[in-house]
Amino acid sequence: MKRYLFFTLFLALSTAAIAQQNPQLPHNKELVTKARSFYVRSDTFYMKREALESSLLGQKEFKAWDLQITGNENLADMLIRVKRVPFSNHFSYTLTDRATDTIVMAGKVDSLAGTVYGRIAKEIVEKMVALRGDPVAAQKTEPQSGAK
Q1: Does the first or last residue of the chain, that is N or C, have fewer Cβ atoms within 10 Å of its Cβ?
Q2: Cα 45 vs. chain centroid, distance in angstroms?
Q3: Cβ–Cβ under 8 Å, residues 132 and 32
Q4: What DSSP assignment string belongs to 65-96?
Q5: Parallel, antiparallel, or unpaired for β 78-84 and 102-110?
Q6: How far is CA 33 from the centre of its chain?
Q7: Is 41 buried (19+), middle (13-18) or exposed (0-12) by CB count in 10 A?
Q8: What is d(CA 62, CA 118) in angstroms, rounded to the nearest whole number?
Q9: Side-chain half-sphere CA neighbours of 79 within 13 A
Q10: Whose CA is closest to 114, among 143, 139, 84, 70?
């Protein structure tokens, strides 16, 4: 009887302790702001991941934030996944925080003649600027040190 009572009490306390923990996911702005590395996955033959990686690295904001692209998905903070709607020129993408598996942004780009990677890179960076702020404008307003 004592064992049963002890077990019931233990179970009730553990359930109460678990119920009190209210884990909340960070906001998208926080997830995007703390992200330092990205991994690109393309699920379509019509867009090579290397092309999107190159396009992202070519964006001046991406450079100003000092972001990196990694070839190892397990080392990335964010995962960029691109898919193509069959028999169309519609490409959808998602940007997912790897640690929380939270989709922080998504979009769809229509593209013909190999411009999809540039359009996706531009759209991702524009959405990141809205969340992180414009690093290029911030660099222009900083006073030049050593200028006389």
Answers
A1: C
A2: 22
A3: yes
A4: TT-EE-S-GGG-SEEEEEEE-TTSSEEEEEEE
A5: unpaired
A6: 9
A7: middle
A8: 13
A9: 17
A10: 84
